[in-house]
TrEMBL record:
Matches recorded under Pfam families: DUF4440
Species whose genome carries this gene: Nocardiopsis coralli
InterPro entries membership: DUF4440, NTF2-like_dom_sf
Protein name, per record: Nuclear transport factor 2 family protein
Organism superkingdom: Bacteria
Ranges where the DUF4440 domain occurs: 7-113
Matches recorded under Gene3D superfamilies: 3.10.450.50
Length: 124
């Protein structure tokens, strides 16, 4: 498996962990200083994982739209971009999202870890 295939598999595994709603499993894909940048601003790893751990935030769907994944490797950094559809459950409500996501990974002694994720709503 080359680096591109490895990163594609890693990104798919991370999405499966999010749908499994297992904070410990989700956390293994993230660096300690990981952040999520979206329309609400910048969210931290600790906040995201605490919401999952408490059950306040769950996901029942997190899938890349086939043919939209793009992976580029720049030495020990990689960028994975894809259109992702997901369903989250928060505050007693369901949220259905269609977003372009970008995950930036850094290669460490333990393998690839995500350092930042960006989500932008898809327009059509």
């Amino acid at each position: 498996m080359d680096e591109i295939e490895e990163l594609q598999a890693l990104d798919r595994a991370w999405r499966r962990a999010i749908v499994a709603n297992e904070a410990g499993e989700i956390g293994r894909f993230m660096s300690e200083d990981w952040v999520l940048v979206d329309g609400d601003g910048v969210g931290t790893r600790e906040k995201f994982l605490s919401l999952v751990s408490s059950g306040a935030l769950t996901h029942s769907r997190m899938e890349a739209v086939p043919g939209t994944e793009r992976v580029r490797v720049y030495g020990d950094t990689a960028v994975v971009t894809a259109r992702v559809v997901n369903t989250a459950h928060y505050g007693g409500r369901d949220f259905h999202a269609d977003e372009w996501t970008t995950d930036v990974y850094r290669q460490t002694d333990q393998g690839w870890v995500c350092v930042i994720s960006q989500a932008t709503p898809a327009q059509g």
